[in-house]
Structures are given as structure tokens and as C-alpha cells.
Specification:
Order of helices and strands: EEEHEHEHEHEHEHEHHHHEHHH
Strand order of the largest sheet: 9-8-7-6-5-4-3-10
Number of strands: 10
Largest sheet: 8 strands, parallel
Radius of gyration: 19 Å
Number of helices: 13
Shape: globular
Helix content: 40-55%
Oligomer: single chain
Strand content: 5-15%
Length: 322
């Protein structure tokens, strides 16, 4: 498995990150544990989760994904071989949300307990919190790093301006700094990252681990109509791509996949891995063949013509014209 440095950190991660949002949600616990074993065996030892996963599911309260991951980590002597990324900040209920220092201190202890570990490799602010002064948030993260509870910190869902402000705040105050960004970025969601965030990423040499790398499954090609999405866990998220432009992107993916004797999922991930600034796309898997797609995507090298075809059909300007 090819590996790459995450930003300026000492973390060497595989070029794809296994998404843990499905653990205990669309992937039952037993299947999640089996998948984690298979992923580790294949070299996919970079796993992303969050405290809030999967609070949105009926009967869930958040922490389900971390708890399953913790059960897996507790079996065997594997912790030192796994890179765990989790997140803090989204609403956990009962007023538990945001990035104020007191809450960060409480939330990290909860995550450590669920994960059954004494440190987190990458602790990420799940979203910007305008009510928490950046210096206070970063000082709280700095304390966790000095205590050894967190190795590195990252940001998710920040604007370019706020991300730059946070990085300058760390530098000006001698505080630990974000080493990575987790933005939404894929073939049908390009404009925000490429225009607003990428310049900051490149200036500060941040690692980038995009989420929704397959656009909630749309880029797999399995959604061709509203009927295909009805009743599916992610069906509501893909509806906005049901237009001529969205389907043209999928058509191009399928053409490139045929040319490379591959699948649309692998091609979409391989395209993302080739984009400037991107370190390791995050993608989840609910079936064995999905995990195979993630692994095989790391071995797929797209030729210049294929990349240009995908760049052209998915360009934000093409979406406006559609």
C-alpha cells in the first residue's frame, strides 16, 4: 500500500482513508469488525470517525462508530499499527457541541473511553465554531497535545478565510497548529475546495482528506433515477445530482472505467488522488466489493486523456451551463 506524509506531520498514511461513519449504522457491528480486519491486512490502517457518528440513526445517540472501533482496537496488539482520526464539535445533544475549551476537554475523554485508547492520532474540529475564539480553541487543543492525549489536530468544514486565520493564530501564539483539512470534495463538488480552500492548503502545506469522495454513492453509478435512491440511507443526499450534468459525469466515469477495465468508484477515487493538495480521500464500505474498490483504487493510474475527460465534464462551469 502506497503511503504519504499527512501535511507537515510525522504521520505516514495510506493514500486512502477508511471512513468509519458506517460502523454500527449501515454496517452492523460484526461486519464492521470483520471489515476492519480485512482493511488492516490490506494496509488500510488510516481510519476516520467522529464522536457524533451515528447520532442521526433512529435509536442512536452518537458514539456508536467510535465504540465499535474501540472494541476492534482492544482485540490484539494492533493500536500502534493503526492511525485513528476522530472529530469533535457537532451537536451530541444536551448542549454538548462546539469548540469551547471546557467542552473539548470533556469530549476528548468521552472519545478516548469509547475508542479504548489513551491517545488519538488526529483530533479534528468537525466544524468551525464562531462562538469560540480561535485562540481559546487552539489553546485547548494545544493542552491535549502536551498531555499526550492527542498527537495532531486537524480542521473540517472551515472556510478558507477562517482556516487561514486559525493557522495564523497558532503561529502568533505559539500554539499547536492544524496539520490537515477534511473538506467535502469530489467530482461533483469541486468549486468550494478548489477556489476557496486549496490556496490556503498549498500555502501552509496541509494534508487534505476529503469526505464524500464518492458523493454519498452517486459516483458509483448505482443511482440513475429518483427511484434508485428511494428508501436508501443516503438517498436524500444524492438527489441534487439528478440532472443532465450529474449524469454526464457518471457517464464519463463509466467510459473511463471500461477503458481501464475498472469500476466508476475506483476511477472517481483515482481521479481524486491525483488532484493538487489531496493526501488521502475518505471512503466507506458496506460490502466486501466496496472495500475491494478502495484497495484497487490505490493501484489505478489514470492516463492524461482520462483525467482531462473527467476534469472537463465535471468542471463547475459545465454545471452552470447544464
Amino acid at each position: 500500500m502506497q503511503r504519504i506524509k499527512l501535511g507537515k506531520s510525522d504521520l505516514e498514511v495510506p493514500v486512502i482513508c477508511l471512513g468509519g461513519n458506517v460502523f454500527g449504522w449501515t454496517l452492523p457491528e460484526a461486519d464492521s469488525l470483520r471489515q476492519l480486519d480485512a482493511a488492516l491486512e490490506a494496509g488500510l490502517n488510516f481510519i476516520d470517525t467522529a464522536d457524533v457518528y451515528s447520532r442521526w440513526a433512529p435509536g442512536h445517540q452518537g458514539g456508536e462508530s467510535e465504540a465499535i472501533l474501540g472494541k476492534w482496537l482492544a482485540k490484539g496488539n494492533k493500536r500502534s499499527n493503526v492511525i485513528i482520526a476522530t472529530k469533535v464539535g457537532l451537536d451530541m445533544g444536551d448542549g454538548k457541541k462546539g469548540l469551547k475549551p471546557a467542552y473539548i476537554e470533556q469530549a476528548v475523554e468521552d472519545s478516548l473511553r469509547r475508542l479504548q485508547t489513551d491517545y488519538i492520532d488526529l483530533y479534528q474540529a468537525h466544524t468551525d465554531d464562531k462562538d469560540a475564539p480561535l485562540e481559546e480553541t487552539l489553546a485547548a487543543f494545544d493542552k491535549l497535545v502536551r498531555q499526550g492525549k492527542v498527537r495532531h489536530i486537524g480542521a473540517s468544514n472551515y472556510s478558507g478565510a477562517r482556516l487561514a486565520e486559525a493557522l495564523h493564530t497558532s503561529k502568533d501564539n505559539g500554539l499547536v497548529s492544524y496539520i490537515s483539512l477534511q473538506p467535502e470534495y469530489n467530482l461533483v463538488e469541486r468549486e468550494k475546495f478548489e477556489t476557496d480552500l486549496l490556496p490556503v492548503v498549498l500555502e501552509h502545506t496541509l494534508g487534505v482528506i476529503p469526505y464524500f469522495s464518492l458523493a454519498a454513492g452517486f459516483l458509483t453509478g448505482k443511482y440513475r433515477s429518483k427511484q434508485d435512491a428511494d428508501g436508501k440511507a443516503r438517498g436524500a443526499k444524492v438527489g441534487k445530482y439528478f440532472n443532465d450534468w450529474g449524469f454526464h459525469v457518471v457517464d464519463a466515469l463509466e467510459e473511463v472505467a471500461r477503458a481501464h477495465h475498472s469500476t466508476p468508484s475506483r476511477v472517481a477515487l483515482a481521479w481524486l488522488m491525483e488532484q493538487p493538495g489531496v493526501t488521502a480521500p475518505i471512503a466507506s464500505a458496506t460490502k466486501d466489493e466496496h472495500l475491494t474498490d478502495l484497495i484497487e483504487a490505490t493501484r489505478l493510474k489514470l492516463d492524461h486523456a482520462s483525467l482531462e475527460k473527467l476534469n472537463t465534464v465535471s468542471a463547475p462551469a459545465a454545471a452552470v451551463k447544464a
